[in-house]
Amino acid sequence: MPQLHLHLLSDSTGETLEMLAKAALAQFEGADVIRHFWPMVRSQQHLDRIMAEIASNPGLVFYTLVNADTRRRLEEHCRSLSLPVVSVLDAAVDALEASLGQHPKARPGRQHAMDAAYFARVDAIQFTIAHDDGVNWENWEEADIVLAGVSRSSKTPTSIYLANRGYKVANIPIVVESPPPSSLFGLKHPLVVGLTTAPERLIQVRRNRLLSLGQAPETAYVEEDRVAKEVQYARRMFADNDWPVIDVTRRSIEEAAAAIINLYSEFRGGRGQMNP
């Protein structure tokens, strides 16, 4: 498979463009792609400097630029170099314009404006970091979501992903020898979600973790019977408390988070009770 240089140009942080490129590239397993990231492109002078780099590494150009003159100059440069260039948001914006009967605002980084939603997301991230791994359990009632699961069941990365979506998340490890605080079982405001995984997958993840820390990969932490009992203990707790459960064995962090967000929407739609 040939090597491809993919140039990503944005007039803002480029977060949206990076996510779109990542999603598209996920469809091409084993593709040899070198990504070049060019954020905050807001002047023709800046663009001209970037084009010199693109010319030395020709490839495919994706962009999200709202300034008409900058867009035009980029497209002219790419035509002169015979490079394919794609405005990745145009189709979506055009469809919305036609449906809403309203012209889009040509403002760089508009989706990242520092509005109330932005500050709510920052607050959610701070809360989530401060309530990781069972810390500050006294404040769990302030959370939107509480994730429970055995060690290495993706609680922390899933919590951080959800926090970036604006949800205040706490998480607690379920340990057979150390039951969680009793307050976990009486929470009213947050949705409690159990995370589970296949024991064999959990053992593999734990072994990799031990190796990365330079520790012996064969301990009670990865002993087959012990791990199976841990998972069974957690599952029983989830069932006894009627908490919804997400199996993360074959789910990515993004997929698990999407499932949790759906559960949370149902939870809030039911005014605090899970919908049937």
Query: Based on CA inertia axes, which overall geometry fits?
Result: elongated
| Biggest sheet strand line-up | 2-1-3-4
Summed up, the helix count is 9
The biggest beta sheet reads: 4 strands, parallel
**How many structural domains in the coordinates?**
2
**What structural category characterises the helix and strand content?**
alpha/beta
Task: Quickly name the level 1 CATH class of the largest domain.
Answer: Alpha Beta
| Order of helix and strand elements from N to C terminus | EHEHEHEHHEHEEHHEH
* Total beta strand runs: 8
Low-confidence stretches: 271-276
CATH architectural type of the largest domain: 3-Layer(aba) Sandwich
- Provide the gyration radius in Å: 23 Å
Could you walk me through the main structural features you see in this protein, from its secondary elements to its overall organization?
This protein has 276 residues and is α/β, with parallel strands linked by helices. It folds into two domains: 4-111, Rossmann fold (3-Layer(aba) Sandwich); 116-269, Rossmann fold. It has nine helices and eight strands. The chain has helices spanning 15-25, 44-56, 68-81, 90-100, 116-130, 155-164, 199-212, 224-240, 253-269; strands spanning 4-10, 33-38, 60-64, 85-87, 145-149, 169-173, 191-196, 245-247. The strands form two sheets. Strands 2-1-3-4 form a four-stranded parallel beta sheet, with helices on both faces. The radius of gyration is 23 Å and the shape is elongated. The N and C termini lie far apart (49 Å). Mean pLDDT is 89; it is low at 271-276.
